[in-house]
């Protein structure tokens, strides 16, 4: 491999990253009406443009981001999925998912456009009360995943819940 070439592997191309790199890299692709991968929320620390249809966002360990994937063929939608992921520290265990290197702690994984839309509405509701979705307690995203998987409505994330999370996080540091 030479330069910034990205080898092809199962799950998609691997963005170029130095072995000493502690960031989590997410490759985004946009091909109108075929493949649309995007970040719904997250604070990237670096963006690399690969070509006019692809770019890579990079996240620091501990960062939480939402990665949405949608793809279609001549017969219609073949995948619609949202993952809310926490970037991990080097050496920590992680789960793998396509287009995310090395992987991350998957807090929420929902498939099927109606359910993906429900998660997107939930994120909108969190942001409507003035809370940055990146700052939401990781346990809340797990709660949303489990409730939706069971076919139930997740509880709202309120300012009171958020304040409790911030205090708990402060104590844990």
Would you kindly provide a written description of the structure presented here, covering whatever features stand out?
The chain is α+β, with helices and mostly antiparallel strands. The protein has one domain (20-172). Helix content is 24%, strand content 39%. The protein is built from three helices and ten strands. Strands 3-4-7-8-10 form a five-stranded antiparallel β-barrel. A two-stranded antiparallel ribbon has the order 1-2. A hairpin with a 2-residue loop joins strand 9 (95-97) and strand 10. The longest helix is centred in the C-terminal third of the chain and has 16 residues, at 113-128.
Provide keyphrases for this structure.
five-stranded antiparallel β-barrel, two-stranded antiparallel ribbon, disordered N terminus, alpha+beta, globular, 3 helices, single chain, about 170 residues
Question: What would a concise description of this structure say?
Answer:
By secondary structure, the chain is of the alpha+beta class.
**Low-confidence sequence ranges:** 1-19
Averaged pLDDT, please?
Answer: 90
- Biggest sheet details: 5 strands, antiparallel, barrel
Relative strand content: 35-45%
Structural category: alpha+beta
Which shape, going by the Cα principal axes?
globular
Question: How many distinct helices?
Answer: 3
Order of helices and strands: EEEEEEEEEEHHH
Topology:
Elements: E1 8-9, E2 12-13, E3 24-31, E4 35-41, E5 46-51, E6 54-59, E7 64-73, E8 76-86, E9 95-97, E10 100-111, H1 113-128, H2 138-149, H3 159-172
Antiparallel strand pairs: 1-2, 3-4, 3-6, 3-10, 4-7, 5-6, 7-8, 8-10, 9-10
């Amino acid at each position: 491999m030479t330069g910034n070439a990205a080898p092809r592997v199962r799950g998609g191309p691997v963005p170029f990253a130095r072995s000493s790199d502690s960031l989590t890299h997410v490759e985004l692709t946009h091909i109108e009406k075929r493949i649309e991968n995007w970040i719904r929320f997250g604070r990237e620390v670096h963006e690399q443009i690969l070509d006019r249809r692809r770019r890579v966002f990079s996240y620091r360990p501990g960062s939480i981001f939402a990665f949405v994937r949608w793809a279609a063929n001549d017969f219609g939608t073949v995948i619609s999925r949202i993952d809310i992921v926490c970037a991990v520290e080097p050496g920590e265990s992680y789960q793998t998912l396509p287009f995310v290197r090395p992987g991350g702690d998957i807090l929420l994984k929902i498939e099927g456009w109606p359910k993906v839309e429900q998660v997107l509405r939930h994120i909108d509701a969190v942001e409507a009360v003035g809370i940055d979705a990146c700052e939401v307690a990781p346990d809340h995203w797990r709660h949303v995943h489990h409730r939706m998987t069971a076919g139930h409505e997740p509880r709202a994330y309120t300012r009171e819940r958020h304040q409790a999370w911030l205090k708990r996080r402060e104590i844990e540091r």
